[in-house]
């Protein structure tokens, strides 16, 4: 079980409006990556709109969510470019195995890894974020980028369309400090409203592009 699992299963059972790819996936945070060089790992893919968008651009995509309902629906539409897996990403062993699998696959295909998350980091606790961070570092065998969009603390009091489940409003100063201390370089960062309006809601979001510095990893060993 992960936080809000029942909520998310119910959400994907009832929501039919989730087929449009996000503005983030179409933004310049993603445009420099190409399918020849990068294997995509999407975490918290939900209804899979962004995963299918990338698959349609010929990226090889491994897309993960803990919601059995979402993954079953997505799997029915799978194609040669995208594979969906139902995994509990708060389970340390699951996450380590996943990152091991993705690194081996990238090595075999001579690709780098791009970890993509949208609206996922704010749906997990900081301890789950730390599990993820550690699994990325421990298993890293190829250059790895991390591109993410998430809600920030400035969003906490703003109007929400869906407001009945757990959210963590991320303090971006602490977030960046932590990732930098753990060996990531910040390639791009912004936070603002107007990035992803939804119905009457205009959330305060951060967008970030980080790169895990493999040289720093070997220097520390
Ligand atoms: C706000 S939704 C975002 C979905 C999609 N990325 C989007 O942009 O619409 C958060 C997703 O993260 C998933 N999730 C949250 N915590 C999780 C965990 N511990 N393990 C696996 N999936 C998780 C939920 O099931 C949900 O689909």
Automatic annotation (TrEMBL):
GO biological process terms, alphabetically, are:
methylation
Gene3D superfamilies on file: Vaccinia Virus protein VP39
What SUPFAM superfamilies has UniProt attached to this entry?
A: S-adenosyl-L-methionine-dependent methyltransferases
Molecular function terms in GO for this entry?
methyltransferase activity
A Pfam family that the UniProt record links to this protein: TehB
- InterPro entries noted in UniProt: SAM-dependent_MTases_sf, TehB-like_dom
The Tellurite resistance methyltransferase TehB-like domain covers which part of the protein? 40-132
Keyword annotations for this protein? Methyltransferase, Transferase
This chain belongs to the protein called Class I SAM-dependent methyltransferase
């Amino acid at each position: 079980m992960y936080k809000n699992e029942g909520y998310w299963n119910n959400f994907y059972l009832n929501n039919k409006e989730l087929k449009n790819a996000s503005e983030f996936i179409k933004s310049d945070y993603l445009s420099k990556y190409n399918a020849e060089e990068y294997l995509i790992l999407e975490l918290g893919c939900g209804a899979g709109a962004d995963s299918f968008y990338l698959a349609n651009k010929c990226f090889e995509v491994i897309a993960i969510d803990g919601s059995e309902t979402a993954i079953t629906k997505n799997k029915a539409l799978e194609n040669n470019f995208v594979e969906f897996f139902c995994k509990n990403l708060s389970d340390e062993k699951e996450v380590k195995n996943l990152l091991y699998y993705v690194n081996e696959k990238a090595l075999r295909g001579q690709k780098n890894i791009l970890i993509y998350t949208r609206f996922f980091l704010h749906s997990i606790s900081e301890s789950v974020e730390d599990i993820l961070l550690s699994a990325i570092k421990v298993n890293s065998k190829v250059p790895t980028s991390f591109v993410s969009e998430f809600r920030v603390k400035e969003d906490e009091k703003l109007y929400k369309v869906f407001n009945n489940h757990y959210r963590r409003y991320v303090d971006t100063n602490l977030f960046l400090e932590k990732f930098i201390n753990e060996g990531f370089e910040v390639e791009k960062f912004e936070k603002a409203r107007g990035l992803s309006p939804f119905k009457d809601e205009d959330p305060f979001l951060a967008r970030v592009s980080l790169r895990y510095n493999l040289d720093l990893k070997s220097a520390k060993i």
